[in-house]
Amino acid sequence: MSVHIRQRIRGSNLLPAWSEVYGLGMNELQRLRALDSAKWTKYGPDVLPAWVADMDFDQAPAIKAAIDSVVRRGDLGYNFAALEPLAETWLSWVERRHGLRLTDDTDEIWTFTGALHALELTMELHTDPGDGIVVFSPIYHPFRHAISDSGRRMVDVPLADGKYLDAVRFDAACDDRTRMVLFSQPHNPVGRVFTTDELRGFADVAESRDLLVISDEVWADLVYAPHRHLPPVLADERLRERTITIGSASKAFNVAGLSCALAHVGSPTVRERLRALSHHAHGRPSSLSAAGTMAAWTESEDWLTETMRTLTVRRDHVAARLAADVPEVGFEPPEATYLAWLDLRDTSLGDDPAKTLLDHVGVAIDPGLQFGDQAAGWARLNFATTEEILDEILDRIIRAIKDGVTP
Known about the structure:
By secondary structure, the chain is α/β, with parallel strands linked by helices.
């Protein structure tokens, strides 16, 4: 952020002004500013954060109570038993919410400290340096880093029209050393739930090329009606024994810091390779992680229902304000996630509009270029916050566009 803008924001006494203009009061702002989370600390008090995928909503009371109960009874030793119910609880949750029974054999389920932990370990076990790993871009940028950091080769398959799976394009991008697909359903950052037809075309290629599929489904529970989450293995039976399906309470229940994910390992080959590892190579979530995750999936569904109502209102509010005030901004309300994928190419903000907005108006959103080279002029905005904070963020973005702010 430029010095004169920083001084102007500080000089405007921004937070009290919010209270006066919106009748917000300081409690919620004080709570958020007091958090140590990356979202609220990375850029400091002059910047309004709408970037990393954390919600600004307080967690479900049952989750907090479950974690507090472990602490109060002093059960912080080697509580391995806390992890034992996780597999069946997750399987039951997925079956109830999405109509899919992944397996009746909990020995096919592994626990991890996060979706990326599961993804990276599987990639190391199943591929060699130089092997090709497919992504459908624009794509969640840690996928890209995981490939490059491990010495694998990214096979970048752009989504057709920026949002559709194209089986012909997918097949043409593969070669004899393409071994794996890093898949996101629902998709981050585009926010689509890929359809049965798209997934069947995808399965045709995965089968013919003998590809292992890592299906990151951590956004599965944040799908807006009338859409429904569609697990790839439910869309096409051929994917069952070549897919690692990853789930977590992290996104839906705002508990990413618990570091707990589960994976159904459909591939017998990968299961054997996982079992051959040293036990401690797997890592495992803590008993606090297990307690919070169990409470999410067994006691917090009403909280999730209410949160989805709120997110629907926020999503539609973003769409309405942009259409009314800056129609040159391209935005299709997402079918899932709480992330707005914004096409800012017809504005003055340049190839990296996120940087321009950070520098000039003190708003932090994610640069489109993080998600793929073809995403110059795009940015990702997190709208999972209060109405007042969201309106202030939108006010600043709209003002910057109307004023013709440039990099």
